[in-house]
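Quick start: read one record
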Amino acid sequence: MKKWMVMMALLVLLAACGQTGRRVDNANYRTGGEGVYFTLGTNLPPARAYDDQRLDVLVELENRGASDIGGAGDRVYLSGFDPRIITGIPFNGQQIPAMAGKDQYGPGDKAFVSFSGVPVSLTLLNIDKYTPRLQVTACYVYETIATGNVCIDPDPHNINSRDKVCEPRNVGLGTQGAPIAINTIEVNPSPGTTRFEFVLQNVGRGQPFRSGVQYLQKCSPHDAGLAYNEVDYVEVVDVNIAGISIKNSCRPLDQGHVRLQNGGGRIFCTFDHVPGSSAYVTPVTVRLRYGYRETVERDITLIQSGR
C-alpha cells in the first residue's frame, strides 16, 4: 500500500513538473511586417536643454521580426546636428547588440543603444538657442523565409481532373515576420514544367539595400551614401522545391539580387519535373537577405545658459 502511494505521488509530481516546464508552441510566429522597431527614450533627449548640460540620447530597440540581428556592420547612427556645436558623438555609430528574433517559444529580444554629446557654449557662438532635428538611423541585415504548399500537376491538360488530389492555383502567403514579404506565389503549370512567379513587397517603414558589409558601411548618414543601383535591392538566397534548389532558373537577377520598384518586385522561376505523373502537393521555400535602413527624428532646442 505504501509503495502504491509513493508511486502515485511520484507520477503526480512528474506530471506537475511537465506542465510547469512546457513551453507554448506558436507555430505561426513568422507573421508581421517589421524587423527592428526602435524609438527614442522618454526625455532622452529632452525637448529643451541648456548648453551647460550633457546631451544624452537613448535608443530603445526591439526585434519584432523572426531574423536574428547584431552582426558585423549592424549599427545605429545619430546625425542631424552640427558636430562643431554638439561634440563627442561618434560618426561610426554604435553597434547593435546581438538580438534574437521571435520564434515559436516567444517574442524577440530588446536592447538599448546610447549616445552622449557635449554642447559648446552658445554664448561664445553669439547665439541664444540652437534647434537641430536629431535623426537616428538604424542599418542592419535581415532575412525573410517564406514557405508555402503548392500543387504540381505534370499533366495539367488531362481532362480527368476529378481524379487529381489538387489543382495548381495561386497561393497567398501574407507576411513572414520581416519587412520584406513574399505576398503571393503565382503558379503556372505546363507539361513537364511549372513556372512560379513570386511577388515581393516592402511592408516595413524603411528601405532595403544590397546585402553585404560594404553596403552597410555606406548606409551611414556620415558616409557618401548608397548609390541608386544599391538601394531597393533584395538578395535571393535560395528558392527551394521540396529540397531541390531552383534558384539558378530565377529571373531577373542582378548579382543574385532582385530590384524593387515602388516597393514591389517579382522573380520568375521554373521547376522541371517528370511529365505525365499524377498531381501532388509539395512545399516551396524562399529565402531572402537584404540590408535595411530606418530612421526616426526628434526636434530639440539648446538654450544659452550664459556660461
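Residues 1-24 have pLDDT under 50 and may be disordered.
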